[in-house]
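Issue 218. Parser rejects a valid record. Input:
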Amino acid sequence: MANWIDACSADDIDEEDVIRFDHEGRTFAIYRSPDDEYFCTDGLCTHENVHLADGLVMDHTIECPKHNGQFDYRTGEAARAPVCVNLGVYPVKVEGDRVLIEI
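Output the parser choked on:
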């Protein structure tokens, strides 16, 4: 059974940006792509546990603010060293003006 969580308003995230969402002791990062799609990953870098919401979004990547490692936020794939462990990704849907994630 799906567990959809209301995370934010669609307007809370600028195009090609990221916000932090905390839920039940976990941190997530929610992204809005240049194509106006929404994505969700684990919110902490797998290299140093830094909040990815403080990082830089470019195209379809998030760059960790600490050591500049990059992930493809659509797939969670570690894309540039020093990161080598992928992020968890979570389904996202938009209903009305609300962004929901499935965890």
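Fixed in the parser; the record now loads. The mean pLDDT is 96.
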